[in-house]
Design brief:
It is built from 12 helices and 28 strands. The protein is an alpha+beta fold. The relative contact order is 0.11. Belongs to the mannose-6-phosphate isomerase type 2 family. This is mannose-1-phosphate guanylyltransferase.
C-alpha cells in the first residue's frame, strides 16, 4: 500500500473508559490505556506506534478526559507518533463513544474537510501483526471513500461470550474483497449461541474500530441522532483552543458537551444506519478487558501459572499473579492475585468479569482506591500518600524542574510544608518565600497559596495536612499553568459538595 491509497487519513484515538475490570491497576485517574504491559509499553503507546506505521496520515487526534490529558501527552512523546502532527480533544466529562466521535468528526471536518477519512481506534487494544492491521485499514478506507461507514470485524478463534458480534452479509462492490454489508449487530451472546456463530463463519467479533469520512458520519448522525451531532458540534465550536509549542488542544465546552446524552456509537448509529460495512480481517486482536486477557499475554509454567513480578509458588496451579513485591502462593488453584501499593485483588478466574463490582462498591463508599493510586501523577510532577488517619494525611510531593502547582486554596484543611531537597518558591497569602532543604512553612485553611520549583532539579517536600475534611476535591484554583478547571467552576463545585 503506497501513500496514494490513503490521501487524507486522520486517526482518532478514543482514550476513554474506566477499565474497572482491571482494578486495582486501572483507576479513574490512571485508566486502562495507561497500563504498562510486561514489555514496558502502555496500551496507549502501542496504539500511537500503530498509527505511526500508516501511510497518508495528516494528523493524529486523541480524545481524552482533560484531567489526564498530560499522561497521554507524555506517552505520545515516547511513541513513534511523536513527530507527527497531533492534537487533543479534552472532554470535561465522559459521554461515551457517540459524543466523542461526533465531536472528533466536527473537529476533523473543520480542519481537513468533509472528505477526510477518520480511523477511529480505541486506545486500549492489542493488535498483531502490524501488517494485518495496515491491510485492514486499507480495505476500510476503500469503502469509506465511497460513503460507507466501515467497522472492523475480527474473525473469531473461539466462542467468546465477552465480545459483541457482527453478522457479515454479501460483499460490497469491488472496492475491497474484505468488505461486506453489516447485516446485524449482536450483544455479548451466551456460550451456546457463540458456538453457533463460530461454526457459521458469518459472524465476526465487533472490535469497536471504525473508518469513515467526517462528512459521512456527521450526515448519518444527523439522520439518526441529531441531538448528539448538534450538541457535540456546539462543544467544538464554543470550545477553547490551547497551544503548547506545535501541539494544539481543544477543551470542549463543558456546558455543551455535558448536555450530550451518553450512548455508544453502535447504539446511536451503527445498528440503525443502512450504510454500514464490516471489514473482515484475521489479525490477532484483544480488547484486554480483564485480568484473564492480561494473563493470556504471558507465558505459563508447567502448572499453568503466569507471573508478572516476584513470586514463589508451591503446589499452585492455573494462577495469575502480578505484584511489585514478593508474593508467596501455597496450595492455590485458578486464582488471580493483583497486588499494588495500596490495594490487593484476589479473585477466582471464573469471576474475572466481576471485578467491576468491587469498583462500584468502592465508589458507593467514597473510598479513594477506586479513583487514585497511592502515587498520583500530575502535570507538574507527582505526589504519594505516605500515611493517613483521623484528621491527618502525610504526602511526599515531587515537583519537576520549572513547574508550579496552581494558585489555590483549601476550605477545610491546614498544610505544613517541609523541604527535603531542592529549592521552593512559595506564595502564601501576601507573603513570598524561598525555602531550601530543612526549611518549612505553614498554610492555614482558606488562604491562597502556590508552590513553584525554580531549579534545574526536582523539588521534594513533605506535606502534612490536618483538618476535618482531607479529600482531593477540597480545592479552588485561581490560576493554573496547565489549563485545568477555571476557578469559578471549581468554586461552584466545592460549594455544592460542602454546603
Amino acid at each position: 500500500m503506497d501513500n496514494t491509497d490513503l490521501p487524507v487519513l486522520v486517526p482518532v484515538v478514543i482514550s476513554g473508559g474506566a477499565g474497572t475490570r482491571l482494578w486495582p491497576v486501572s483507576r479513574e485517574t490512571f485508566p486502562k490505556p495507561m497500563m504498562t504491559l510486561t514489555d514496558g509499553e502502555s496500551l496507549l503507546q502501542k496504539t500511537f506506534n500503530r498509527v505511526a506505521a500508516l501511510p497518508g496520515v495528516r494528523e493524529v487526534v486523541t480524545v481524552i478526559n482533560r484531567d489526564i490529558y498530560f499522561l497521554a501527552r507524555d506517552i505520545l512523546a515516547r511513541s513513534a507518533a511523536r513527530a507527527m502532527p497531533c492534537s487533543f480533544l479534552l472532554e470535561p466529562v465522559g459521554r461515551n463513544t457517540a459524543a466523542a466521535i461526533a465531536a472528533a468528526a466536527s473537529w476533523v471536518a473543520r480542519r481537513h474537510g468533509d472528505n477526510a477519512l477518520m480511523l477511529v481506534l480505541p486506545a486500549d487494544h492489542l493488535i498483531e501483526p502490524l501488517e494485518s492491521f495496515v491491510e485492514a485499514v486499507a480495505a476500510a478506507a476503500a469503502v469509506a471513500r465511497q460513503g460507507w461507514l466501515a467497522t472492523f470485524g475480527v474473525a473469531p478463534t473461539a466462542p467468546e461470550t465477552g465480545y459483541g458480534y457482527i453478522q457479515a452479509g454479501p460483499r460490497i462492490g469491488a472496492a475491497s474483497e474484505l468488505a461486506h454489508l453489516a447485516c446485524r449487530f449482536v450483544e455479548k451472546p451466551a456460550l451456546e449461541l457463540a458456538k453457533t456463530y463460530l461454526a457459521s463463519g458469518d459472524y465476526l467479533w465487533n472490535s469497536g474500530m471504525f473508518c469513515f469520512s467526517a462528512g459521512a458520519v456527521l450526515a448519518e448522525l444527523q439522520r439518526y441522532a441529531s441531538d448528539i451531532a448538534d450538541q457535540a458540534a456546539g462543544s467544538v465550536s464554543s470550545g477553547r483552543e490551547l497551544r503548547a509549542g506545535d501541539q494544539l488542544s481543544l477543551e470542549l465546552d463543558p456546558a455543551a458537551f455535558g448536555a450530550v446524552r451518553a450512548q455508544s456509537l453502535d447504539f446511536a448509529l451503527m445498528e440503525r444506519s443502512q450504510r454500514v460495512a464490516v471489514v473482515r480481517n484475521t489479525m490477532r486482536w484483544s480488547d484486554v478487558g480483564s485480568w484473564s486477557s492480561v494473563s493470556a499475554l504471558l507465558p505459563q509454567d508447567g502448572d499453568g501459572n503466569s507471573v508478572s513480578g516476584d513470586a514463589v509458588l508451591h503446589n499452585t496451579r492455573r494462577c495469575y499473579i502480578r505484584s511489585e513485591r514478593m508474593v508467596g502462593a501455597v496450595g492455590l488453584d485458578n486464582l488471580m492475585i493483583v497486588d499494588t501499593e495500596d490495594a490487593l485483588l484476589v479473585a477466582h478466574r471464573e469471576h474475572a468479569e466481576d471485578v467491576r463490582h468491587i469498583v462500584a462498591a468502592l465508589q458507593r463508599k467514597g473510598h479513594d482506591a477506586y479513583r487514585h493510586h497511592r502515587t498520583v501523577r500530575r502535570p507538574w510532577g507527582a505526589y504519594s500518600v505516605l500515611v493517613e488517619g483521623e484528621r491527618f494525611k502525610v504526602k511526599r510531593i515531587v515537583v519537576a524542574p520549572g513547574q508550579a502547582l496552581s494558585l489555590q486554596l483549601h476550605a477545610h484543611r491546614y498544610e505544613h510544608w517541609i523541604v527535603v531537597s531542592g529549592e521552593a518558591l512559595v506564595e502564601n497569602g501576601t507573603q513570598r518565600a524561598r525555602l531550601l532543604a530543612n526549611q518549612s512553612t505553614y498554610i492555614p485553611a482558606g488562604q491562597k497559596h502556590r508552590l513553584h520549583n525554580p531549579g534545574s532539579g526536582e523539588l521534594v517536600l513533605i506535606e502534612v495536612q490536618c483538618g476535618n475534611y482531607l479529600g482531593e476535591d477540597d480545592i479552588v484554583r485561581f490560576e493554573d499553568n496547565y489549563g485545568r478547571a477555571p476557578a469559578q467552576a471549581v468554586a461552584a463545585q466545592a460549594s455544592a459538595r460542602h454546603a
